[in-house]
Design a protein that fits this description.
Radius of gyration: 22 Å
Helix content: 55-70%
Order of helices and strands: HEEEEEEHHHHHH
Number of strands: 6
Length: about 190
């Protein structure tokens, strides 16, 4: 742990030197550190300084809208995403009223814009979570497809996928990850290899 801490401090020192040369400053109050580790036994947290002040060590951090926890389970991210999806699903419920609601095509467009876009964002990162964590998103996907298609609650999930021309979330995550990976490989400035 001491070696890692030294290396991190060297990297932070280089960043601060670069920031001073380029007229940029890091906010010490907004800067935090997460020690990503799956070990169960207790171990000391790293002590890293920025501008002479200790950087706060936290158990989870939000970076570009994705919440990273220290064990990389992505459970906090999925739970927060479920709250957002619940609000978006309520909008879809109002629009899907059987007597005066929107058409099926319009509902699917709203679903893709309000719900699926939230699920897709960051899925190449949080898609590595355990299956039990990712399953928590399937209920929103299935409920939304039922609302859009007007299907009963007992309708099989596979028939919903066919009826709405939508893949399962697992297949969608795989497709988006492969698309992202192939996009990286085709760029000449990519330094992945």
């Amino acid at each position: 742990m001491a070696f890692i801490e030294r290396q991190l401090q060297i990297a932070v020192n280089k960043l601060t030197q670069w920031s001073i040369l380029n007229g940029f400053t890091f906010s010490t109050s907004k800067t935090s550190c997460v020690h990503f580790c799956r070990k169960r036994r207790l171990h000391p947290e790293p002590e890293i300084e920025l501008y002479g002040q200790d950087i706060n060590v936290v158990s989870e951090v939000k970076f570009l809208g994705v919440i990273f926890d220290k064990k990389l389970t992505f459970l906090p991210h999925v739970l927060q995403l479920r709250k957002k999806l619940d609000r978006a699903l309520n909008i879809l419920k109002v629009l899907s009223n059987t007597s005066w609601g929107a058409s099926r095509l319009s509902l699917l467009r709203v679903y893709r814009a309000a719900i699926l876009s939230k699920i897709d964002y960051g899925c190449t990162i949080y898609g590595s979570a355990r299956q039990s964590v990712l399953q928590k998103l399937n209920t929103f996907h299935h409920s939304a497809l039922r609302l859009c298609s007007g299907a009963f609650r007992t309708s099989p999930v596979e028939s919903l996928y066919v009826e709405c021309h939508e893949p399962s979330l697992e297949h969608r995550r795989q497709m988006l990850t492969l698309h992202y990976f192939s996009k990286i490989l085709t760029k000449p400035e990519s330094s992945i290899f």
